[in-house]
């Protein structure tokens, strides 16, 4: 599960963002001061930071400068009420990956987070995955089972890749729906279950285990 640091001193905003991110399948932690945000950002515990500029103790620009000065490539999205052109340029030139002004729409923030996460994973991820005779070539989007090529649709491949990258780990339906389809959880949707069935038919029924009340995992 990807983990996001929310550096925001206004409790109402941090609670709103945290609730939305957790519903989308992310782990979160809130930092309310600049020094705390910097310490946590350099801890290697997080996959992304949402950074407010107006933090007490050390403003967001200084936090960002110290993070980049340490050599960290942690993706950072600046989220602030200071949306003027000069501040935007300063944030981006200071090493921010993206910049959003308050007030903001959460669905737009979530879309930007997913885009940055995908870009980071694509840059750092393995080009080929292999697990118990199943092979996925991420670049060509081809799959093989015991050396025999299997035809997967684009969505089936994305689901297989997500399960394979987290082999042995239980992924909830909410997480899979968010990461593979880009949707927030809809309790009325059974699309995850349907595609799990497709994958079992194509890759082997024993590869994907149902964990009752929790979700699925590649064994």
TrEMBL record:
- What ranges are recorded for DNA binding? 126-219
- Per the record, residues carrying 4-aspartylphosphate are 52
Q: The OmpR/PhoB-type domain covers which part of the protein?
A: 126-219
Q: Which domain of life is it from?
A: Bacteria
SMART domains from the UniProt entry: REC (SM00448), Trans_reg_C (SM00862)
A Pfam family that the UniProt record links to this protein: Trans_reg_C
- The identity of this protein, by name, is Response regulator transcription factor
Name its species: Candidatus Agrococcus pullicola
């Amino acid at each position: 599960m990807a983990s996001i640091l929310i550096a925001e001193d206004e409790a109402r905003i941090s609670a709103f963002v945290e609730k939305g991110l957790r519903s989308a399948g992310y782990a979160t932690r809130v930092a309310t001061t600049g020094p705390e945000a910097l310490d946590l950002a350099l801890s290697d515990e997080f996959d992304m930071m949402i950074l407010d500029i107006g933090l007490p103790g050390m403003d967001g620009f200084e936090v960002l400068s110290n993070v980049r000065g340490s050599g960290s490539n942690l993706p950072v999205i600046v989220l602030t009420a200071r949306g003027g052109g000069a501040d935007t340029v300063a944030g981006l030139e200071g090493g921010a990956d993206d910049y959003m002004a308050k007030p903001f729409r959460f669905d737009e923030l979530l879309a930007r987070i997913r885009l940055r996460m995908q870009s980071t994973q694509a840059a750092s991820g393995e080009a080929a995955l292999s697990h118990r005779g199943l092979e996925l070539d991420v670049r060509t989007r081809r799959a093989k089972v015991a050396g025999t090529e299997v035809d997967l649709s684009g969505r089936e491949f994305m689901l297989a890749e997500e399960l394979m990258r987290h082999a042995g780990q239980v992924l909830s339906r909410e997480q899979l729906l968010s990461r593979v389809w880009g949707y927030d959880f809809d309790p009325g949707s059974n699309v995850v279950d349907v595609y799990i069935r497709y994958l079992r038919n194509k890759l082997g029924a024993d590869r994907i285990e149902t964990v009752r009340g929790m979700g699925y995992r590649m064994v």
